[in-house]
Task: structure prediction
Amino acid sequence: MTTAFINATIYTGKEKLEDKALIIENDTIKETTANESVPESVEKIDCKNLIISAGLIDLQIYGGGGYLFSNKPSATALKAMTEALLKNGTTGFCPTLATNSMEIFYEAIKVVKENPHPAVLGLHLEGPYINPIKKGAHITEHIKRPERKEVEELLKEANGVIKIMTLAPEMCDPEIIKLLRDNGVVVSAGHSNATFEEAIIGYESGITTNTHLFNAMSSIHHRGTGLPGAVYLSTNVYASIIADGIHVDFNTLKISKQIMKERLFLITDAVEENKEGAYIHVKQKDRFTLPDGTLSGSLLTMLSAVQNCVEKADIPLDEALRMASTYPAQVINLIDRGKIERGLKANLTMFSKDYQPEITVLNGEITKA
Result:
């Protein structure tokens, strides 16, 4: 089936196209062209006053659709989360689990294995191999140093389902990082009190990104730059950031973007309200907290994060969209999406000029907000 989205403003990831048509064929992007060049036989959807970008990708999100998947992994929770994210313009995501028991991790692996979906890119395990000094909202009970046998068993059971693992480099031997990398896991530094030197050793061992820059990590000081300083000075290591103005100030976002350029990308770190289990999330006006007030998650969507980048941090829209699509795809080595380009997957986000989601396309399948 061939469909043309006409009269749109298109951000391809490389350029901005005004009043053009984007044609997809089945699950693949075919071409961009002039509106009048679209054959009469092709189904047309009028996207006047809409912006089209590559589908948004969220590499760290805990819940959605009224379910906190990370608290009690289930097929029902995963389905509700997926449907809610698609309506909000997210075409790919990594369901994320905070530090918890191995039983919860294994249950999440089982659920994702048994319920494959093209929007579910794989699990992000944030912990348990983190530094308790920088645990943030994570529970202390299950924080530990990794043992090779445990990691090998986890990887064997996952069989590729684990896409990302956040760990503290100072808590892990380089051989553990290499083991994860050799098994296709993207290793991210986070919940870490690493010195600059410890961070560099982690990068040299195979860490390629950092989890929620500045949150739950060593801070920059003029006598010791810590993990943020190490990623600032790197030339190839990425970092995610939560652009809600709460997890980090918008000026911090602006400074970080100017330094890191294309190595900085967006996540939501969004949770859902939850009143039982290991993680109790209380919904506040503009954030989620633990019962004691500790910041525990955001209320962001990927589109609202893009909006904040443009309106609060002076980041051009085309670059903000790359932070939400192109760069996350690069982080987890997805070569078939993240841009609008002939032959890539027809994963698209269409939204109004006030950043309201209108249409999402996942592998050619259309979902309306």
Observations:
- DSSP finds ten helices and 21 strands in the chain.
- The two ends are 22 Å apart (CA to CA).
- The chain has two domains: 2-53+338-368, 56-331.
